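Task card 7
Instruction: Convert sequence to structure tokens.
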Amino acid sequence: MLRKLLLIPLLIFTSATCAWAEKLNQLSAADVLGPAAVAPPDHPQPPARLIVDPPLAGPLRKGAVFIQYRAENLRIEPVFGPEALRVTPRIGHIHVIVDDNPWHWADASGEPVILVGLPAGKHKVTITLADPTHKPLDSKTVEFTVPPHEPAAHDAHPQAVRQ
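Output:
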């Protein structure tokens, strides 16, 4: 009896997995990956677009800001300069501005933006998608509140050690 109870969910799972795999088998590499990065596209590229999520709630409660983003119709690559404008499909990077400061930093890692050490309170981060010459292509701003939190161990002043 126990074997039958375990066998039925296993058969259902196997059947569903095979159906899902069958659908994937019908897709070409280009369907999944997009145009080949080694050949120019046959038609004009659609505009680059930036998608930015709000900061992850868990780390934010501890005073750390993790902002995930992704680019559409642009690959994030550490390649800069006017010659890089001819690379197809299009490449670029992001610029990050915190709290409307007059300065920003450029990032080409493609990894989430991570900020630590912001004081508790309201903040905003603007992420701008830029081409290899730093020309802005798309921009998004996220506003959030860093709640009061305990300072991290590395933020606290070290205590004198008694001997």
